[in-house]
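User: quick one, fold this
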Amino acid sequence: MKRQIEEEARWRGYFMLDTLKGGAVRKRYEQNLHAYRHGTSFEETNERLRELITYAVRTTKFYGNFAENASITDLPVVNKDTFRENYEDFRSVKYRDAKNNRIMTTSGSTGTPLSMVQDHHKILCNTADSIFLSALGNYYIGEKMAFIRVWVNNVKKSRMQLFMENSIMMDSSSLSDDSIIEMLRCIRNEKVKCIIGYASALEEISKYIARKNLYMGEYQVRSIIPISESMPSPIRRQLMEQFRCPVQAWYSNEENGVMGIQTREDESYYINSESYFYEILKMDSDEPASEGELGRVVITDLTNRAFPILRYDNGDTAVAKREVKDGRFRLFLTELYGRRSDLLYDTSGRAVTPYVITNNLWNVEGVKQYRFVQTGKKEYELRLNGDPAKMDTEEMLRRIRPAFGDDADIRVTYVDEIPVLASGKRKYIENLMPKT
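Assistant:
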């Protein structure tokens, strides 16, 4: 009871402090809540886009030659390479020397890291967005939280930060049984209410709990939020059953922040359209994808003025759906496939969801780790780390071959280890098919 009172006091105290500073976070939080319940206004979104485009034209070199009344579709689609090659040209002259700017750096999991400038208003909006989307996932700031990831130097938190956030750093560099035992001991003893972590690390913890048939009734976890990687649906359901709490992944990146969260009902993601304008464009052109068609995720950040981000192709692919009523809309990504560079294709060239692999291989006996790689138009490789005597490779191929075609050439390779990326994330899917 004492701990609960303390956590509730932290929640109230945070917003009291925010009120003394002008109440910007609370105001944004309420705006997000209203949009979640009633939808985001088309009219207000168009006005925000007009203001952002005018601002970018007036204050940045990159957009300086465009008309101030240009529409969003008049602007080019950009990506990380565009930002790297024209970094200073994207920076707004109004915030170039602002002392309260913040630099965010991507992990570089799939390439060279990218640094992004965020102004103070963007930081406040991102804070409010994170608090709101966390609350949708049943986590409220002030509650004890465990964060599981690889804690490299540039993201490590100080003791003061951990105290202020009421959080614990848990390193996923090692996921041995001993490491998982220590994590679970800490989660239980510290009465952790929310676990946020790499999906692959949470999967290993869930598998350990299942393997040891552990009873989780003594734990007080009320929310689990996977990040950075896709989580197989069976693992999500298993975690929900083990901890008896919602498991809802964030959709986020370092460049923009937390943009959405998985709904409780299904695998779709609710996107915060108060802060972000999303386009889903065709895979091979900058034309809008049709309703229900897989396309490229292109993001316009409506809140960052230090480094205006308009029509940013972040490399992800998704299928989107809008719920429209009375001039307002709610946006959902009904399917989120992740990086386009890791999208798989069947032998006819049609995209295949990675969940075909992750959902079918998560519980195969003898498999410790796996990676599925497409090496050619009809050539694939399934890399397995585990006990060959226990692994039923014929059963595995029977499960996944129908998604790729009867003429798919799937080779099975046994390896001693599936290496993690430098960021600590583990890649289950990879497309190494030569570009044509």
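User: anything notable?
Assistant: The mean pLDDT is 90.
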